[in-house]
Design brief:
Two copies of one chain form a homodimer.
Chain A: E1 2-8, E2 12-21, E3 24-34, H1 37-40, H2 44-53, E4 63-68, H3 79-91, E5 98-102, E6 105-107, H4 109-114, H5 123-131, E7 138-143, E8 148-154, E9 157-158, H6 165-171, E10 174-175, E11 190-193, E12 196-199, H7 208-214, H8 235-245, H9 255-284, E13 288-292, H10 296-306, E14 310-313, H11 320-324, H12 326-336
Parallel strand pairs in A: 1-4, 4-5, 7-13, 13-14
Antiparallel strand pairs in A: 1-2, 2-3, 5-6, 7-8, 8-9, 8-10, 11-12
Amino acid sequence: MKIAGFDIGGANTDLAIIDYENDEIKNIEIDYAYLPMWSNNDDLSRVLIELIENICPVDEIDAVGISMTAELVDAYDTKKDGVLDIVEKCEATFNCPIGYIGINGLLTKDEILADPLQAAAANWIATAQIATLLSENCVFIDTGSTTTDIIPIKDGKECAIGKSDFDRLGTGELVYTGTLRTNLASFLDKVPLNGNEYAVASELFAQTADIYMVLDLITEDDYICDTYDGEGKSKEECARRIARVLCADLDVLSNEEIIEISKYMHQVQIKQITAGLKQVCETQNLDLVVTTGLGKNILCNEAAKLLGLKVKQMSEILTDEECILAPAIGTAMMMKK
Amino acid sequence: MKIAGFDIGGANTDLAIIDYENDEIKNIEIDYAYLPMWSNNDDLSRVLIELIENICPVDEIDAVGISMTAELVDAYDTKKDGVLDIVEKCEATFNCPIGYIGINGLLTKDEILADPLQAAAANWIATAQIATLLSENCVFIDTGSTTTDIIPIKDGKECAIGKSDFDRLGTGELVYTGTLRTNLASFLDKVPLNGNEYAVASELFAQTADIYMVLDLITEDDYICDTYDGEGKSKEECARRIARVLCADLDVLSNEEIIEISKYMHQVQIKQITAGLKQVCETQNLDLVVTTGLGKNILCNEAAKLLGLKVKQMSEILTDEECILAPAIGTAMMMKK
C-alpha cells in the first residue's frame, strides 16, 4: 500500500511516498519542487503529478494526504480563498482518496469546505506526529527555508497554544525566519564592523541562503530558492549581495569582512529563534528539544544550546534528507491512520 | 536660461527645470516618473526626455545637471558599473552641457570617468545647497520614498562625516527607511495588539505606503510606487496587505485593529529616524533641524519633536511639492553655478 503525503508551501512543494507492508513502513521515498505559489499556483496540479511520477506511476498510489501553508501567499485575498483553491486543484488532480491535515486531525474534502481555515497552515500538526515517536514530552523545532515551527508535545500529544499562524506569531510557536529565503534586512538592526556599527538597507538585497553559502554551511544544491537579484549562487555572487545590504560592494568590503559580517548575521538569526524557543519552553515547562529541518544544525541546535536545553535530533529515526521533508512524511503517516 | 536638474533614484527619477533671468530664479517647474532602475534602466533615456518634454521642448534646455542614487540597484554588479552606465545613458541623451553632482561638487564627464564613485549617491550634496539658504548651521533631514538623508551643515557648508552610502549608514547620516517603499518587516520586531505581542512575517507583504494610506497621511496620488502584491491602492487593499504581515487577513483583524497596528508601526518608524537624527545632532553639536521630503510631516518633524530640537521647514522657501523633489532642484542650482 502506497500513501503519498504532500506539504504544499508558499515556495516549495514537498512529497513523501510511504510504502506500507502489513501496516509496517517498508520504504520512504521523498522529493520536492520549487513552486512559487504567489505567482505560479496554476502549475500546482502538474507539479503534484510530476513529483509522484519521478518516484512511481501515479496509479500505484492508494491515497494522498495534503498539508499546506501556501494559502498565505499574496495571490490569495484571504487564507480561506487560498485553502479552497488548493483543495479544488488537488481534487481535480487525483482519483484516489484524498485527506487534508487540519488543526484537529485529518479532514475530508467536505469537512474542509465547511470550515476551510482548519486546514490553513496545519502542516506542523503532521510533523509533530513524528516527534512523538522520539519523546512523549518535548518541544519540537523545525526550521525550514522560510519559517521555524516550535511545537510543544506533552504526553505524546501536541499542545500548541496558538492554532492559526497569527496566534502562533504571538506565542513564539511560529518564528517567521528560515535557512534560505529570509531577507537579511528583516532581522538585522545594526551590523558591527571594524569598531563601527552600520545600519542596513531595507531592500530585497540578500537572504539567509547567501550568508550560509559564504559560511560554507549550505551548498549550491541546498540553495533551492531564487536569488534576489537573479544572479547565480556562487560564493562570490552571494558575497556581492551581502555587501549590498550595507550599501557596499566587493570594491568596498573584503572577503574577510563579508565573512565577519555573515558570522554576526548568523548569530542574530540564532537569537531570533532562541527567543521563540525560550517562550515555548518556559510556557510549557519543557526542557527537551527535538530538532529537524534544513536549519537543524545551523540554527535549531545552536538555539537549544544557548538555552542549555537537552537536544534530540529527528535524524535518530529519519535520514537527514527525510528530516527536511518531515511535514510531508507526517502527512502521509496521518493519511494511513 | 533654463537649467534641468535630474535626480535619478533607484525607484523614481525626479526633474526640476529652473528658469533664470539675469541670474535670478524666475520660475521652477518640477515633475517625476516612477522608473524601477533594477529592471527598467534601458528606459532611462526615454524617461529623461519625456519628463522634460512634459514641461518644455528639450532644445530650450541650456544645461543638464545629474545626481544619482540608482547606481546601487542590483542590476549593477558594483556601484562603479552603475555610475558608468548612467553617465553613458545621459551622455547619449543630451547635446547640451551636462554636469554631475559628486561628493566634492560638480563634475564633468571626464572627471567622473576618472573616478566614478565620486558621483555615487551624492544627491544629498545638492539638497544641502538649498538648506544653507535657510540656516548656516543646521541639520538638514530629507525623508523620501525609500531613504532618509540627515546632513549636518556648519557655517553654510555641509560637513557630513560619511561620504559614501556605506559610511553614512555608520554615522547615522543615512537611515534606510522611507515614506512609501519600506518593507514593514524591515523595522518591526514585535507588534502589540490586544494585550499580546506578535512577531511579523519576514516576507514582502506590506510597505510603509500601506500604513500611511490606512492612517490618511498620504493619498493614492502620493502612493507612486508599485504595491507588493500587484493589487490596488485603496485603503481596504492596503489594510489587507498589512494584515498579512501578521499572517492574518481581514477575516481575522478588524479595521480598528489594522488602524491600531498601523499607528504603532508609524511610531516605530519615527523612532528609527530619531536614532539617526540624534546621532548626527550630538556628533555635530547642532540643535536646529530643517525638514523636507515626502515624509517631512509624517516622520521628520515628529522625530525632531521627540528630541526637543528646533525645527524649520524647507517649505518656507519652496512649495510642498518642490520640497519632495529638493535634490533635483539643488542639482539644477549647482549646475547653474
